[in-house]
Task: structure prediction
Amino acid sequence: MVTTPAESVLRGSSYRADCPTRQILDRIGDRWTVLIVGALSNGSVRFSELRRRIEGISQKMLTQTLRGLERDGLVRRTVHPEVPVRVEYALTEAGRTLREPLRALEEWAIAHLGEVSASQEAYDHAEQPPTDPTDRDM
Result:
């Protein structure tokens, strides 16, 4: 079967820069996305509560990430016409399917924290050779 380049891109080759799956991986692999999906795992949450739950995230970054997740169909934004206006965010069905794989990543990080920390410490204390700009494998 012969495929056109456009068909090949639509099938997914996340190693290609122009592949739509690359954009999805960029979104779900983002640290703020991982934390936002985790914070929304138990239901709807207001913006200010999300900001309290996710230490270190700026208002701007939270807004940008939520907008991207909403655009991608992973988060639903609901505006309640009250005074003052109440806005809540919740995972969509597609967003809920991310909970399990992202939880697995979190569990992996917890399980391997000691090993990674020890490796980082050893690396940081070892004398590093100068970087060779001709080394293409890095």
